[in-house]
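Lab notebook: predicted structure, single chain.

Context: the supervisor wants predicted structures on file for every construct in the current expression panel, including those that have not yet been purified. This is the next one on the list. No modifications to the sequence; it matches the entry in the shared construct table.
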Amino acid sequence: MEGIVMFESRRDGIGRSMPDAVKLAHTIQRTLLFVAPPGSISECVTEAVEREFTGISVEQINDVESIFAELEHPASLILIDTSFLPEIETRSREIARHHPAAVVALIFDDSWHSPDVLHRILFSKTVRGVLPMNLRLDIWLSVVRLMLRGGEYFPPWVLQVCSEGSPMSVHRSTVVGLDNEPSSTHHAGPASLGYLTERELQILKLVSRGFQNKVIAGKLNLSEHTVKVHLHHIIKKLGTHNRTSAAAIFLRANAALTHAAPLGVG
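Prediction complete. Output recorded below exactly as produced.
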């Protein structure tokens, strides 16, 4: 898990002075918890997170059982190595009870493409995102920021692999879903698609295929601004956090109906 491309921080000095350490101890409010095999999370990753996010303390544990140990500060984000996926699925309710405010996401290398496991991730009741560990540091930290705010993130290639064999095809695209603030209405899920208009469903289907706003606007003969407005309404109606999460809801609904009738939007 040391594949993150690091850039030098332009901060003065190395380490922290004693007064700074005391001040930091008083500002810590939440914990980012790594659950990964020993040595898989480098110190530079831990330091980058603590420099970037005020009030966040990073801790690493090496097994799922340790998730239930008491933390000094509540966990906001739990990043779990994929090798622990079977175990966290069987203990999902325990994790939710012990860390009710935490987002749980998986960490792994972008080259890991097992379709069966990716489907389990996308449909998991516990996992709310996937964080590749070989992203450039600034992008990686942007995804972490989204998750700390309660958002979900699935790389476009995850949606692509999970959509294979369905009537839709998600194309590889740039990193999406990092520029939207979390929003909340009702619980996000496939049933929420009933709140969308026909036009919103058309746009969401194209989003799930990996198309960006400019391309969607061209395909539907709309202005790019109009597409952005529709996407804002879609995200709000679904009670989700960003376009990637909205696309995941659409794909789940379509997969659930594959043996009946796929979502009929043109």
